[in-house]
Structure formats: structure tokens, C-alpha cells
Amino acid sequence: MMRYLSRQGGREEGAAQAARTAPPTVEETNVTSAASAGLANDPVALIADKALWIRRRSFQMVYEAQLGHPGGDFSAADILATLYFGVLRHDPSNPRDPGRDRFVMSKGHCTGAFYAVLAAAGFFPEAQLTTYMQPLSKLNGHPNRNYLPGVETNTGPLGHGLPVATGIAIAGQIDNAEFRTFVLTGDGELQEGSNWEAALTAGHRKLENLTLIIDRNRLQQGARTEETASLDPLDDKWRAFGWHVEVLDGHDHRALYEALSKSPKGRGKPLCIIANTFKGKGVSFMHDNVAWHHGVPNKDQYEQAMRELA
Amino acid sequence: MSAAAPQPAGWHDCRDTFSKTVEALAEADPRIVTVVSDSVGSSKLVNFRKRWPERMVNVGIAEQTVVAVGAGLANGGKIPFVSAAACFLTARAMEQIKADIAYTNVNVKLIGQSSGIAYGELGPTHHSIEDMAWLRLLNNLTLIVPSDPWETEQAIRAAAALDGPVFIRVSRMPVPDLPRSNARFEIGKAETLREGDDLAIIANGVMVHRALAAAEALAAEGIAARVINMSTVNPLDEATILDAAKTGAVVTVEEHSVRGGLGGAVAEVLATHDPVPMRILGFPGFLPTGSADWLLEHFNLNAAGIADAARQLLARK
Ligand SMILES: Cc1ncc(C[n+]2csc(CCOP(=O)(O)OP(=O)(O)O)c2C)c(N)n1
User: Which of A247, B74, B77, B206 is the most buried (most CB within 10 A)?
Assistant: First the structure.
């Protein structure tokens, strides 16, 4: 069954694409949440519901594995929920459809949130999430395209996603294809020079089919970005490289939905969305706290977090 | 991101030895600086930063730059210890290591932290089991894979004293102190930890104590296995390898791919001068998901697996 999402104000839809436009109902996803009932017609409410579910499920995965990167899972949860439940046109039953929108998870350490959203979207059964990082699991600490549908490229070393996404977008540009390519990076990740080489290429080639989302939580592994190798003024940097830049609250589902679902056609520039976020967003003791980059919860912390994520 | 199981009592994380030693060296020599890429905590350099904030350069998450800046610091008269996760320090910055460090032949000490498969579940992107192959063929670059805290400290001190580029693997996987009767470390000299003339087991890094345990098991069956700690991979101690060949059988063991590492280096020497039956023990390449301990067991990189390989090899002698 095709389960492509419609995109608000999107491209003209040919006959072949008309069949792709039915939004998924909650029943169509394999996530059962009582709170989801009746939300299918309001994308922003559905996104909010899924974001909460991603936070809870990913934290359970990290707790059970006693491994993971929960701070960055939480800063990215709203972005991922918006992409998968409001923006991306994809068909989990045909994950390598040449016409699919691509999403590249460049901050590949945040597999808790990434695997949770892929399961929620129907790429694999939710039950598989319990194998996270267990021996021989397909749910490795970093995503592997050869193990899991929905993964476009293997990430883990930072600074690879944008260059690969640029290549995907160039392929689409050559073919005059309809699909869009989205990539999510961390902000500390932008200290890798490879990003800026790709930024030059994408700007030069006016890749309007390419959208970069920066999870601007202002923390990297060991400290704040601005105390390590500062990135500000980040928006000016991308503009200078020929990109269109929008800065928004990365936990505001409506703002994310509107910015990401708007058609990029005719802009003639790649789009960079600087999503201002907080590491550990959603749980008081993790909020904006670098210790939770790869900190894992004990039982008390887990239970408190689950009470707060309600 | 800890992947290894909790440390048995009396076993050590050699990163602690690294930071203790580099602090001791820095006290005595103001030229010593550390260079990191958002790798302060993972290098155990938090205390160094507290003591000498002006002598630590953190370039952010940028391994190509951390290596190249190290080369520049050496040019400016410093003795830089460039410290980052071994997987990124090598794979990401190989050209900087080749051109700026080895080919230019500068006085930089590269510290590959949490080498091998210590990051277990984080997968092949975070494993560093190709580094010995990539690095050992670079001229000028001394490559050391220490086996325990004592040897890690010796290697770091020797690297600081040497005027030239050095790469040292520093493991986070818990290791015991190795038994040594007359401990003496010299770059380029292998260490025979146990005598034996039936076959030789050549190992380095975290595999050395496993090789010793295998030799112990073989001894109970009347098989005398020599155990050689080949901690320096470049320059290679060819004389000790050729002496080992006189036993008639050689097993190599490394926390590395079976292609191109310690086994490859030993095989080049044997094939050229004195071919004897040989087994190369290590990992097959990109590994499945699993903890470091699980991976070692799964691929038989333990005392039982090494002893088995030795028995099979003896049958071919
Ligand atoms: C090339 C490379 N160097 C180092 C690392 C280790 N590492 C993993 S996550 C991380 C910090 C990432 O910070 P950021 O991009 O801001 O991500 P977030 O805060 O969203 O988790 C580091 C240094 C890596 N994965 N890849």
C-alpha cells in the first residue's frame, strides 16, 4: 500500500502522484497510542503525539541497552516527528522507491530517536526496537543501510551526511526528479570541514531540492559549541555560501511543519533550517545538560523521566 | 559510550596511564601540549585542561585539522600530543597523517584512543581495526601498540624522548598487569614474555595477556609455546620474528583485521626469509553488532581460540 504523505502547498501532482497523497491514519502506522486517535487530520497534533512517543520509546531503548545518546535524541525528536509524520513522501513498503523523498540522518549517534521514528512510520516492527545494540541486532549503535529499510546511508562519523545528501540531490537535479532530499546534522558536527565543502557545492549548483536541518542545541560531546570552536553567526555563514536560511524554534511543531513542507520550487538555492533546540529537551534534569550527551539513566532517573514525558 | 564490561579488580584502562604520564611529562617539559578534537573527556584529559588550560588546543570536531594543527605546533617548537578516538584520528585524517606528519617527518605524537573494538556496539564506524594496516606502511612513523599500563607509560615516555612522529594505540579495554621478569622497553624491540620451542605466538595490545593464557593452557598438554609481545609494529623487529620461525610454526594475534596488520607484517618477513606454517588471528572486517567482550568471544579471540589455532597449526608442522 502506498502511504506517501501530502505536502502542504507542494509541487503540482501528476496522475501518478495523486495516489501518493493520502496522509497516513494512525491505524496505518504500527504505533498504538490511545492519544493518537482522531489526530490524523491535524498534522501538527499528530506530530506532537509522535514526538512524545519517540522520546519515551527511545529513552526506554537507551535505558535497556545502557548505551546511547539520549540528549541528542531529545533535541531531534520534534524534527524527526515532523519529517516522518508531516513532510516526507515515502512508502515503508517500498523503501527504495526511486521517487521517494530522501532523509539522511547525519547525526548518526542518535539512533534511539531515529530507530523509534522509523518503527513508528512503519519501516520495521516496533518489537524490533527491543534488540537495540544487542548481539547480532540490526539496530546497531549507528544506522546501517544494509540492515534496515529506511536508512539511506551509513553514518556515525560526523560530517558525512551533508556531502552524501548533496550527491543525492545532484542526482535528482540531473534527472529533473520531483523528490526532495533532507539531511539532519548536529551543530558541533559542523566543525567538520567536509560540511563546508559540500555547502560550497550545493550553493554553487543551486540545489533547491536539498534541505539541511541543523539541530542547534549549542552543546557538543564535551562542552558548548561556542566555548569549543564557535559557530555563530551561523546563519550568515550559510547565506554567504549561497543558501537560503530560516531560523526557528526546533521544538515548535507548527513552525517546523510550515518551514519544511513549503515548496522549495523557484527559490534557486538550497535551504538551511537552523532549528534552535535543547539537548535533553523534555526531561528537567537532562535539559541543556552536556552530561546527557551519552549519559544513560539509572532506574530512578528513568522512572522520573517517564513521569515527566507524559 | 562505555562499551566494555565493568573492569575486573586489578585490571586497568590504559587511558588513565596515558593522562597520568602526559601530565608528568608536561610538568617537566613546557614544550609539551595536548591537541584534541572535542575529545577531552574521552582522552581522560580533563585534569590536564584544569592544570594547563593554555597548553591544550581543542579544535572542535575536526580530525583533519587536529592532526594538521599538531604538525604546525611541532614546527613552532612544541611537542604536541594529538589525542582523539583512534577510529576517527586515522580514518578521517589519513592524508594529514601521511603528508603532514610522516612524509614531512615532524615531531608529533598521535594518540589513538579507545583503539580496536572497544566501542563494541557502536559498530564498524567506531571500531579501529584497520589502523595498523594503514599506518605501518608509512615511512618515519613509529607505530606502537602497548599491552598494559606499564608498557603504555614506557611507550609514551619513549615517544616524548624521540625526535620524530609516533602513533600509539591506547586501549580502554581492561587489561591486567603483565608478568615481567626483567622489564625493559625499547622502541623496535619485541619482548619475549615466555620461552618455548614448539611454536611461537606473536601478539600485541590487549591480545598479549590472552596469548599468555593460551600458552599456559598449551603447557598443560606438554606444548611449549613461546609468547612474543610485538608492541612496536613499525619499525618491525625482524630478528625476533626470524628467531620465532625456528620453532617451525607461528601464530599471530591482534585486535585488528586479519588483513594487513601485525599478521600481515609478520607474514611479509616469513614469506621473504623463512616461510613456516602460520595462522593469523584477528577480526574478519566489518563486524556485527555486539559489545567488545561479546565480539572477542564470538570471533574466538580468547585463550581457548588461540590455543585451538596453535594445536591445528602444530599438526601442519
Ligand atoms: C568524525 C567524528 N568525530 C568524533 C565523533 C564522536 N562524537 C560523537 S557525537 C559527538 C558530538 C556531536 O555533537 P553535535 O553534532 O552537536 O550533536 P548533538 O549535540 O546533536 O548530539 C562526537 C564528538 C564522531 N562520531 N565522528
Answer: B206
Chain segment B283-316, per-residue pLDDT in tens: 999 999 999 999 999 999 999 999 999 999 999 9
Kindly list the domain boundaries of chain B, sorted by start residue: 11-176, 191-314
Residue B2 pLDDT greater than 90, yes or no:
no
Domains B11-176 and B191-314 share a fold: yes
User: Which of A220, A230, A287, A292 is the best mutation target for the ligand 1 pocket, counting ligand atoms within 8 Å of the beta carbon and taking the most?
Assistant: A220
Task: Indicate the angle between helix axes A299-308 and A43-65, nearest 10 degrees.
Answer: 170
The count of domains in chain A is 1
> Does position A13 have pLDDT exceeding 90, yes or no?
no
Q: What is the pTM of this model?
A: 0.93
- Which chain A residues in 239-298 lie under 8 Å from chain B, judged by CB atoms? 294
What pLDDT was estimated at residue B8? 79
Q: What spatial distance separates the first Cα and last Cα of chain A, rounded to whole Å? A: 32
H helix runs in chain B, sequence order: 14-28, 46-51, 63-75, 86-91, 94-95, 131-136, 149-161, 208-219, 238-245, 262-273, 292-298, 303-314
Of the ranges B1-5, B77-81, B178-182, B228-232, which one carries the lowest mean pLDDT score? B1-5
Cell of B213: 593464557
ipTM of the complex: 0.94
Which of B42, B286, B289 should we substitute to test contact with A (largest number of A Cβ atoms within 10 Å)? B289
Domain B11-176, CATH 3.40.50.970 — does that match?
yes
Q: Grid coordinates representing B84?
A: 582523539
Nearest to B288 among A109, A136, A225 (CB): A136
In a domain, A166, yes or no: yes
Residue A180: which CATH number? 3.40.50.970
Q: Which of A79, A107, A158, A290 to mutate to test the pocket of ligand 1 (most atoms within 8 A of CB)?
A: A158
Q: Is B63 a residue of the active site?
A: yes
Class of domain B191-314: alpha beta
